[in-house]
Each structure stands twice: as C-alpha cells, then as structure tokens.
Amino acid sequence: MIIAVDGPAASGKGTIARALAKHFGLPHLDTGLLYRAVAARVLAEGLDPAREADVVAMCDFDEGLLASPDLRTDHVGKTASIVSAHPLVRAALLQRQRRFAQQEGGAVLDGRDIGTVIAPDADVKLFVKATPAIRARRRHEELRRHGIEVSYDRVLADIRARDDRDSRRSEAPLRQAADAAVLDTSFLSIEAAVQRAVALAEAQMARH
Ligand SMILES: Nc1ncnc2c1ncn2[C@@H]1O[C@H](COP(=O)(O)OP(=O)(O)O)[C@@H](O)[C@H]1O
Ligand SMILES: Nc1ccn([C@@H]2O[C@H](COP(=O)(O)OP(=O)(O)O)[C@@H](O)[C@H]2O)c(=O)n1
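^ Those are the sequences you sent over. The predicted structure of the assembly is below.
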C-alpha cells in the first residue's frame, strides 16, 4: 500500500500524510526534508545553491540531520527550492525515496513529485492545496510558534516565489497527477481535512 501526498508549501500535506500514516499503520517520509537537508548543508558550507556540481556533493548526508530544527526556516525552504531544481540533485535523492516507498507493507510519502515521479503506481494519490494567503498565514504562525520572527508579507512572498519555481522547473515540476484526488484545505480545520483525506484514500483503495 503506497500513499502519495503532494502539494505546494504549507498546504497541509505533511499534517495529512502523518495522520494517514497513523490511521493506516504505515511509516511516513517527509521528502521535503531531504531537499531541506541538502540546502542546509549548502548554506553551512557557504556554497552557491545555483552550482549543481557543488550541491550534488552535499546529497550524501547522515540520517540524523533530518531531525534538526534548523531545517524549518524560510531561508532553508527557499534554498531547498533552488537546489531541488537541479536534475542531478533529484537523481541523487531518487533511490532513497523509491526504497522507502517500496518497502514491505507500504508507506506514506509527501512532497511535490511523489504521485508523478517517485511512486507513479501509488495505490492512493492526493493533491493537497489551499490559497496562497491561507498557506502564508499558517506558515507564519508555525514559524512564530518555533520562535522564528518574520513578517507575514515576507512569508507570503516566499511562498509565491517557491510555488513559481517549483511549478516551472523542467525536472519533476509540482503538478497534480492525472489520477490524484484534490483536497482543498483552505476552509477546513485540521480534523475535517484529515477526515476527508481518510475518506478519499479509502475510496481510492476500494478501486484497486
Ligand atoms: N486544515 C488546516 N487548518 C489549519 N491549519 C492547518 C491545516 N493543515 C495544516 N495546518 C497547519 O499549517 C502549517 C503547515 O502545515 P503542514 O502540514 O506542515 O504543511 P506542508 O507539509 O504542506 O508544508 C502547520 O502549522 C499545520 O499545523
Ligand atoms: N518531493 C519534493 C519535496 C520537496 N521539494 C522541494 O523542497 C522544497 C521544500 O519542501 P518542503 O515540503 O519541506 O516545503 P513545505 O511545503 O513544508 O514548505 C520545496 O519548495 C521543493 O522545491 C521537491 O522538489 N520535491
């Protein structure tokens, strides 16, 4: 059982993916963290995120880095969307994600290209979305909760720039898979969004 959850920044896909993993008893991988980890290493080494060869050298990192709270910042998110546009960087992280998806018993993965590239044969595909203003408000509150002070306008501008970059890149752009069910969380509480996601997942499972 493979469940693919894709969508733009702060749409709620991570929250939904975690809840689905718990509901169906499956392991979960937040694939955005892999790109964020590469970005954090690029920043720590003072490298230029636009230089593909330099970034590729940062793709072999220790699993422990994924738990670092430093990966949450807006700056790391923005840098992640620059490094993730490089085809060789995506190739370097591909097998790790495929192995996770294909493990015995199944898995839930969330990201931008799970239903299109990483697991095109996934049993369940959800595309989670919400308006940019609502996503910016959620992300702004989340950052403040973690003690990161940044203005709402700045978060909104970053989200728009990231949407733009993630959708326009030539390699594995952010787009809805043709067979994905869309879940707009704009006017849903977390509980309502999760309930809807479980119902959509069960409906797709019944078709297989
Ligand atoms: N339906 C919702 N209503 C209100 N807040 C939400 C909802 N879904 C998620 N959130 C909150 O928005 C923030 C971003 O959600 P997250 O699941 O991390 O998004 P993503 O993984 O798409 O970036 C988190 O603080 C989360 O608690
Ligand atoms: N499967 C994925 C996941 C993330 N990413 C990139 O990594 C960046 C950070 O992803 P994320 O999922 O942690 O970001 P949020 O949606 O949590 O803000 C995104 O803007 C994408 O550029 C990707 O290209 N492919």
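Strands lie at 2-6, 28-30, 107-111, 124-129, 181-184. The chain has nine helices and five strands.

Shout if you want it in another format.
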